[in-house]
Amino acid sequence: MLHIALAKGRIAKKVMKSLSDGGYQFPDYSDDSRKLIFTDKEGRIRVTLVKSPDVAVYVRRGAADAGIVGKDVLMEDGEEDVYEILDLGIGKCRMAVSGIKGKRDVMNKRILTVASKYPSIARKYFAGRFQPIDIIKLNGSIELAPILGLSDVIVDIVETGTTLRENGLKVVTEFMPISARFIANKASYQFKHAEMDTMLEKLRDTLHKQEEE
Ligand code: PRP
After folding, report:
1. Pocket test for ligand 1, best of 163, 170, 178 (most atoms within 8 A of CB)
2. DSSP 180
3. Each residue's pLDDT tens digit, 92-123
4. What is the C-alpha separation between 161 and 18, in angstroms, rounded?
5. Are 76 and 118 in contact (CB under 8 A)?
6. Does ligand 1 come within 6 angstroms of the Cβ of 156?
7. Rounded distance from Cα 42 to ligand 1 centre (Å)
8. 148 CB contacts (<8 Å, ≥6 apart)?
9. Which atom number of ligand 1 is nearest to the Cα of residue 141?
10. Beta pairing class for 112-116 and 153-158
11. Potential cystine with 188: which of 49, 64, 65, 169 (Cβ 3.0-4.6 Å)?
12. End-to-end distance of the chain based on CA atoms, in angstroms?
């Protein structure tokens, strides 16, 4: 049996729908269930729902054969020691620097205060531009930071742009496209690549159809 660790939330919902469209039936799954482990009727796949930063941890240590998680989280929390097999083309968004609308000169400060859930990505981005920064790690609702005067700008993902718009913020610059990736444990990939390939083929087809709808 193939064990897949899925990032909870938007990605998991799309992937579970796709798997079911591809013929894997999970009778006890529903989008709002609190259950965390699901096995398909035929006993081919076991899916576990985990917090996105933990997907690579389970996969790296072999507690899951494979995982599906956003590239943003992979880059931030470490993508070493796992194989990145496929860009699934879902969960698409951009990593961006944003600030309060109409305050573009904020970027001219000598030392910029940056709030982010992604301190490592933010550090790398500004280091590449030789811009000294003071980084503040937050865990969510990052848009609040510039509004409350905690930071000058934020580094965060933007999908539809609604959260920024509704909070009076604006993108200063987008610097990296993001999407969900299929990753595999190195040993599992050697021994179970046939099962992974079968599942991936179905997933790719059904995800593609879902995106077209
Ligand atoms: C993410 C991100 C933004 C929002 C962007 O937050 O941090 O806040 O989505 O999406 P949008 O451009 O479509 O509005 P998430 O929903 O993961 O919640 P969090 O802020 O609590 O992490």
Report:
1. 163
2. E
3. 999 999 999 998 788 889 999 999 999 999 99
4. 26
5. yes
6. yes
7. 36
8. none
9. 20
10. parallel
11. 65
12. 31
- Predicted TM-score (pTM) of the model is 0.92
Q: Which residues pair with 184 in a beta bridge?
A: 66, 83
Judge contact between 184 and 55, C-beta under 8 A.
no
The DSSP annotation for 101-165 comes to TT-GGGGG-SSEEEEES-HHHHHHHHHHTT--EEEEE--S-TTHHHHTTS-SEEEEEESSSHHHH
95 alpha carbon – ligand 1 mean position (Å):
11
Instruction: Give the nearest ligand 1 atom to 139 CA.
Output: 22
C-beta of 160 in contact with ligand 1 (< 6 A): yes
What single DSSP character describes residue 31? T
From 57, 50, 101, 92, select the one nearest 71 (Cα to Cα): 92
Nearest to 56 by CA among 190, 155, 184: 184
Sequence length of the chain is 213
Q: Which sign does the torsion angle of CA 59, 137, 178, 76 carry?
A: negative
